[in-house]
Model the fold of this input.
Amino acid sequence: MRANYRMQRLFVGDALAPSATFEVKPEQAHYLANVLRLGTGAEILVFNGRDGEWRAEIAAVKKKSVSLTVREQTRPQSPHPDLVYCFAPLKQGRLDYMVQKAVEMGAGVLQPVLTQHTQVLKLGLSRLEANVIEAAEQCGILAVPELREPLKLDRLLADWDTDRALIFCDEAAETNGPLQILRSVESKRLGLLVGPEGGFSEDERRQLRALPFVTAIPLGPRILRADTAAVAALAVIQASIGDWC
Ligand code: SAH
Done:
């Protein structure tokens, strides 16, 4: 079921059940009361990633707090999409964009991966988490993707569940198009790997291509920036063998 786009949606930490009442976080209170100018009795939608989506009423607006009373469920909880999105961290602005887009495009797990040419080694996970939640609020999904701690590429590959296909965006792959290649992993659970701004090293490409669970795909004749490649790869996967089908 698609989301109701006319109502404001808010991610909350509290348990959601009929008549539950709680205060939202201070920044959410500010947003509801001062930006949207909602008053007592106004309705919004709330979700917490566990209990589905619920209609809630603003029960009270005080100077610095807003409390909500939960009414009825509007959509049941949906499971995480089973797509593990692995990406080399980028510089802040592009990373924010990439994480938001990955959530909108249906990634279920976000796995930062450190490769040889990865320039950004320190990640602000709480900022990324905020981006994940913002994107989830915006696009109407109820299962908030899981954001994992960064891993080195070697570790990611050593620990990979070999029943899951890892689709590797290889900027040096022959460009006969990704669609036919994707058909070969149609019935599998999927992961996707996009490289850093500096691309994969020759060693990494060799290592990846030698693994039985890895499938290399091209994304056309042009070199895309990593954030563009992420959206392009997710679109082509979802449209050919994923949840757009
Ligand atoms: N600096 C590198 C490009 C890196 S692009 C170079 O000049 O070669 C960043 C990442 O996006 C790549 O590692 C790859 O995963 C993906 N990507 C970009 N363009 C691509 C293409 N045409 N085909 C497949 N993957 C691509």
Q: What stands out?
A: The chain has a mean pLDDT of 95.
